[in-house]
Amino acid sequence: MRTIIIIPTYNESKNITHLINALQKQFKKIRHDLHVLIVDDNSPDGTAGEVKKLQSRFNNIHLLMGQKAGLGVAYTRGMAYAMEHLGAEVVFEMDADFSHKPEDVPRLMAEIDKGADFVIGSRYVPGGSIPKEWGTRRKLISRFGNIVARYLAGIYHVRDCTAGFRAIRTSVLRNIEFADLGVKGYAFQIALLHQVVVLKAKIVEIPVDFIDRTEGESKLGMKDVIEFVLNAWWIRFHSLKTFIKFLVVGASGVVVNLGFFTIFLTADINKYVASPLAIEISIISNFLLNNFWTFSRRKTKDRTRIRGVKFNIVSFLALGVSYGTFVALSIYFPNVAPQLHQLIGIVPATLINYFINANWTFKEVGND
Ligand SMILES: Nc1nc2c(ncn2[C@@H]2O[C@H](COP(=O)(O)OP(=O)(O)O)[C@@H](O)[C@H]2O)c(=O)[nH]1
Ligand SMILES: [Mg+2]
Q1: Are 211 and 131 in contact (CB under 8 A)?
Q2: I need a surface site. Which of 193, 256, 268, 277 has the fewest CB within 10 A?
Q3: Residues 6 or more apart whose Cβ sits within 8 Å of residue 179
Q4: Which of 92, 109, 78, 121 is nearest to 211 (CA)?
Q5: Ligand whose nearest atom lies closest to the CA of 10
Q6: Is the C-beta atom of 26 inside 6 A of ligand 1?
Q7: What is residue 364's DSSP assignment?
Q8: How far apart are CA 60 and CA 151, in angstroms?
Q9: Average per-residue pLDDT in the chain?
Q10: 10 Å Cβ neighbour count for 133?
């Protein structure tokens, strides 16, 4: 299997030669066809020159140069090159500063061999560790980054979301639109991980010890931290998009309901007939909008007609919940305006309505 270890570098001349030599030793233990791709952003310390010297000794070293625009941009460029020009079936992300131990490469590769799509060298699973010498600030940034990624961006089941030591099958990467990730710096790590989660790829975390660099300096800046947090919010907003559309449709249903009710009354239709008619029309309009807009991208198992019936059943259930809440609140808080009871009743009804419709009526096939 053609495997490319992608190493972005910026001022790593003191590390890169040792690292490439150490990697070559590890490659001997792996049965696959391994290469190294250095993505250097014109480092002023002459990192590229060191790489060129090694290229005359080894024939599996590649060098890609570019303008410095951030870690994410470097990886995006490197991955595209590895897939288009080097025939990569697997790519690794790895730092140049020995924070990721070359001896761990065969362990990550072994998980790919066992069938994983995305292997994370994880500091936060039992057996993994962060450097003891790290100061409080650095520890906090790392912890905070993971909490933001897990609970804000919603990647709950991954322990180390900010890890930069990963092995990835390109069959997964080829389904990702890199231009749409919209990140330039270190936020790339969670933006990519999030896409991989969305694609339901098989993710495996194995413990690694993260070693503090001894040569050169860290390039992690405040700009990266800010972009990282903003990106986590963006991911959260996107995953709420379906729910927001559902709310918009619900609101349009209220207008349809009252509109038809008024039209029927003007046409002298008895209000006890007009009311359920208007309700049913709004349920149908809600269904059509949800079917062709909110959930339009989903592949569902049922035909439209069956989905319509299910949607109707759920709507009546929601009506019951809304009315039940109204009655309960009216009994327990008789002195509050009934409009408030009616309004509060909408909240659980909407949540139940959304939950059941999203997971039953418009359930995606193969999504259990
Ligand atoms: N090409 C490129 N490499 C970068 C950039 N920023 C960081 N790197 C490299 O990415 C790896 C991780 O960066 P590092 O500064 O060690 O981050 P830290 O380990 O989080 O402190 C190192 O190999 C860096 O040289 C960048 O803007 N462009
Ligand atoms: Mg580092």
Answers
A1: yes
A2: 268
A3: none
A4: 121
A5: 1
A6: no
A7: B
A8: 40
A9: 94
A10: 8
Q: What global pTM score does this model have?
A: 0.79
Expressed in angstroms and rounded, the spacing between residue 328 Cα and the centre of ligand 1 is: 59
Q: How do residues 26-78 score in pLDDT, each as one tens digit?
A: 999 999 999 999 999 999 999 999 999 999 999 999 999 999 999 999 999 99
pLDDT at 368: 44
Per the CB < 8 A criterion, the answer to whether 60 and 34 are in contact is yes
Q: pLDDT tens for residues 194-216?
A: 999 999 999 999 999 999 999 99
Show me where the domains of the chain are located.
Answer: 2-220, 241-361
Residue with tokens 């470097």: 74
What are the φ/ψ torsions at residue 204 (nearest 5 degrees)?
-130, 135
- Is the CB of residue 189 below 6 angstroms from any atom belonging to ligand 1? no
Q: How many angstroms separate the alpha carbon of residue 310 from the centre of ligand 2?
A: 53
Q: Which residue, 99, 82, 100, is CA-closest to 91? A: 82
Ligand nearest to the CA of 71: 1
Token pair listed for 292: 């062709």
Which class is domain 2-220? alpha beta
| Cβ 93 under 6 angstroms from ligand 1 | no
What end-to-end distance do the CA atoms of the chain give, in Å? 32
For ligand 1, atom 20, the nearest C-alpha belongs to: 220
DSSP-assigned letters across all residues of 102-127: GGGHHHHHHHHHTT-SEEEEESSSTT
Which residue lies with its CA nearest to atom 14 of ligand 1? 218
Q: Is the Cβ atom of 96 under 6 angstroms away from ligand 1?
A: yes
Q: What is the pLDDT of residues 277-298, one digit of tens each?
A: 998 999 999 999 999 999 998 8
Give 84-122 pLDDT, tens digit per residue: 999 999 999 999 999 999 999 999 999 999 999 999 999
Element (H, E) at 9: strand 2-9
For residue 121, the cross-strand partners are 206
- Token pair listed for 58: 């080894």
* Long-range contacts (CB closer than 8 Å, 24 or more residues apart) made by 257-260: 257/281, 257/282
